[in-house]
User: Fold these one by one.
Assistant:
Number 1:
Amino acid sequence: MKCESQKTSSPIAEKPRKPKFRRRAEARPDEVLDAALELFTKRGFSRTTVDQVAKRAGLSKGSVYLYFPSKKALLAGLVRRAVVPVANMALGVIADYRGDPRPVIRQLVGMLASNMNDPKVFAVPKLVIREAVGAPEIAQMYREEVLDRALPAMTRLIAQGVEGGHIRKVDPELTIRSILGPLMMHLVMAEVFSIKPEGGLALDRLADNHLTILFAGLEPEEARL
Amino acid sequence: MKCESQKTSSPIAEKPRKPKFRRRAEARPDEVLDAALELFTKRGFSRTTVDQVAKRAGLSKGSVYLYFPSKKALLAGLVRRAVVPVANMALGVIADYRGDPRPVIRQLVGMLASNMNDPKVFAVPKLVIREAVGAPEIAQMYREEVLDRALPAMTRLIAQGVEGGHIRKVDPELTIRSILGPLMMHLVMAEVFSIKPEGGLALDRLADNHLTILFAGLEPEEARL
Amino acid sequence: MKCESQKTSSPIAEKPRKPKFRRRAEARPDEVLDAALELFTKRGFSRTTVDQVAKRAGLSKGSVYLYFPSKKALLAGLVRRAVVPVANMALGVIADYRGDPRPVIRQLVGMLASNMNDPKVFAVPKLVIREAVGAPEIAQMYREEVLDRALPAMTRLIAQGVEGGHIRKVDPELTIRSILGPLMMHLVMAEVFSIKPEGGLALDRLADNHLTILFAGLEPEEARL
Amino acid sequence: MKCESQKTSSPIAEKPRKPKFRRRAEARPDEVLDAALELFTKRGFSRTTVDQVAKRAGLSKGSVYLYFPSKKALLAGLVRRAVVPVANMALGVIADYRGDPRPVIRQLVGMLASNMNDPKVFAVPKLVIREAVGAPEIAQMYREEVLDRALPAMTRLIAQGVEGGHIRKVDPELTIRSILGPLMMHLVMAEVFSIKPEGGLALDRLADNHLTILFAGLEPEEARL
DNA sequence: GATGAATGAGCCTTCATTCAT
DNA sequence: TATGAATGAAGGCTCATTCAT
């Protein structure tokens, strides 16, 4: 009923301006979110107008409100859409792994690093962090859906690594900062200040350098001597 | 330095209302910036109105424009004011140190960690990071005044540590992320998501845990076995 | 970029349009209310825009919000301003009168009738009645400030007239409708439907006809026979 | 005008969803008007959206426009529908009555009073009065269809009562206000300001009190002494 | 006949900025 | 220097109306 392809079969192109009524619906919310993500990322939430989002999504301002009850709901929708895959990605890697956590950490860091230039992946978390002040509910939601699931899993991973004697006796919770913080800082420096190593983001080298230090640092003490 | 009295020696003293501790005129811009910093930090730049800043600073909206030509200039002023001491702090610690960089790093990390709950210290950098999207010139300025001076110093510190054989052969530039990133992530988690270790920020424990891993990780390879 | 002084130093005819900054203040809120009253009366509350009110009052839309926090506050302000004089007028006439109520009623009806074509006097009550559905708080306010003071006074006036045997034994409360209702209906017919006796509102004749019937009707029963 | 029966006699009956008591197409306009009346009465014309009307009537917004060309046409339709019965009711009572008008007046007042709490009866006139400002054409129509027929009839009724010496020499036209005004005022006070006698609307007592005064007031002068 | 997606004009409100005093 | 009244350009949101299906 609403899925047929509508070809503009006019041979001469009479009045090709603004088909005006498009009738799509199914895909629309997602298209709006795509536009919003792009603009919010580029200009920030408050500096983006609903009209800009609408235009970028190819519809009128009023139509945005057909799908989202407010501008803020766009932000929320963005987060909601991104939340499940992200959390699952992390969880999927960690699962109920037992043993030396370093391979898992390597995989995790590698995964993050290799996705760091894909705007789709980090755009939402960056947005959340930036707009948390003006929209705490959204930060809260992100926390509950993503962090409160991923962080405990990482903590457990490290804790059992310590217990099993695979790595040095560290505080599992705090060590998460040592694992992911360098990546975050790399991202911030690159995106906020355009400070990158010569020759691009150099994510491989970053991950290598970081993991070298990290893994040596996590080596159990008795392994030395 | 900014306390000398210049009395408005008008003999008629009209408008004696609001005695309010007789402000010295030169102090005004600073007071405005204090107010701006507080509000920008708490509510974000766009959600703060010039009027709010004025009120908090104890003067009228119009008067703010006596000292700053625009709202954005407040942000710039904030950064400008914070820029010199911060850079100097970092530079002072590092100076032209030669030898094992770890003591210096320990000092630096300790300093940062112990100031992390002082809003005055990190308020401006956090602001810069958050508002960089809407005010790239300001991020640029921060970069030039602070980062472009502090980062090379740290790079040199690490580089000469590597050269002197005091630490493992790491990429000096990238290693900066490994040194400071965990602190940044700790801050973000605490401030944006209220995710803190039980019992507050636990900055000492964070620094300890981080430095333990970091320093073990930086240990020169030949030091082992 | 826009901070240097750019004087339009053209010596001839420098743009004398729109004095732009007027600086009045004291009288402004009242002027705004005057404009609002006129427009709300003529077009109704929802069909009047704040911009129209502003223009009629001779200032800009934004300035209206300097004096009134919202469009609805204009309505409330209108009522508040009108409320005290109206109530006092009625109360002043009735006071603690004792004796045959008919002279007082004649005075009251005469007063109302003679003010009925003065838009200033009845504009607000009419507004309140019309907009009560959309702004019940305002009807409530009007009731409390005006009706809850004037109606009991009238009830007392009639009650003591009955007790003193000056008028027939009627229900004082309900009789108020018999006294004022005809005036109200006359107003409604004239204003809503343009139904007036030939030759204008004919308020004198209305009052005469009404009072003749009313007073004869209130005549104590024993006065007959 | 667009209410004639047009049945969708398609034999295939596609879309059997929403069985919902199988609407007869001809009933639709009336159902829409019912919904509109209810909502316009409760929230006012401008505060009611076409969508709300549609939903309440159990169809879609677009379908409302199948039956009525605009929102205002709903108001007009409402009035048109109500107009004939109301006028006839009044006219039926009055007819070409000759003699003492008071029994007829008693019947009329009794009829009105006893229908006053039935929303169906007075909803439309109240609506017309309230929205007359924004829709004068509709007030005009109501006037022509109802008032211009009923009022002259009442005028004649009273006039011949005066001529026949059944009642005092009053102005027939103005006396209509004295007859119906108290009812109107009772309604306004109750509905707009929730001011009612203790124990509900007390319509019987109101009619009694009113008619007692009115009829005594209309008593021919020579009837006394 | 019905639907509901889509539109766009318009409204209320905010706020950075200006300027007469 | 200081004020705050005034402005005007948006921005978020609503809703009557249209039209492809």
Number 2:
Amino acid sequence: MGRSPCCSKEGLNRGAWTALEDKILTAYIKAHGEGKWRNLPKRAGLKRCGKSCRLRWLNYLRPDIKRGNISNDEEELIVRLHKLLGNRWSLIAGRLPGRTDNEIKNYWNTTLGKKATAQASPQSKQNSQSFKKRAIEPMTNTQSSKSTLATQVIPTKATRCTKVFLSLQSPPPPILPPKTLSSTAIDDPPQAPLLNHQQDSPNLHGHDDSDFLNFGHWNEFQSSDGGTLIDNDCDKNLSIDSYHSLALSDDLMFKDWALNRCLDDNSTLDLESLAHLLDSEEWPEMRH
DNA sequence: AAAAGCAGCAACCGCCTAGAT
DNA sequence: TATCTAGGCGGTTGCTGCTTT
């Protein structure tokens, strides 16, 4: 598809998967489990590359996959998460049980992105006509100042970290609602569905369940050297009510942060600067 | 009825990161 | 510490079906 293959794929099938291939892959994974994708095709007798097998399984063959019929609630949630996270499709998908990043990405590119653009500049005929394919550019950091929607995006760097270490010697960064900390904090989330869970989130730092993306329920562990290990297992408990709270205005959300001393009293709610801080490289001490 | 345009979606690609050695 | 490998992610592409002309 326009690019040279990253590895030799001679003799491998490409394109759409057949029912037989699906059956073989499903049977193999049920018998042996996921993982070892590179060896899987050979072992399963499939003429596909491992990446293709993985994608097929994750996006279509998994038993818990929910396809099509994205509900209004889901749609609304996708929009809001996209505002906050940008094109972090896997993270967004992690909050929507049964949905895959690919599906959400496609849904955004074909449906929601258009709506968002139209809302951002409803009077712009030019914009409405720019819905043509490829005209829907994902919101990048550099684009983020160009639309009202995009300005809400907190661009994060795609780094992964399963734990965040906070030294008690220095105060934790002041402005960090846990789920927007950065990719270091929000990557590898426990994939907890945002739409179905209980309501037992303990408060943390004064946040209640209405805090955006469930800022509650951080498991904190005192480490041996006096630091605090914050497990990322922190967003398991957002209730449906708190999901609906996502419908609060962004202003309210960020005011809430400020009220909870997430922001310095004198600071402005400047998402650009927030985003700057969110770059994990800005605080190297936080990276391990 | 046929051709052109458009939209949706599945799949592929390169890049990046974490973990292993 | 450096290198290699596997897995994961987001961007992009091409196919296919539907709609419009």
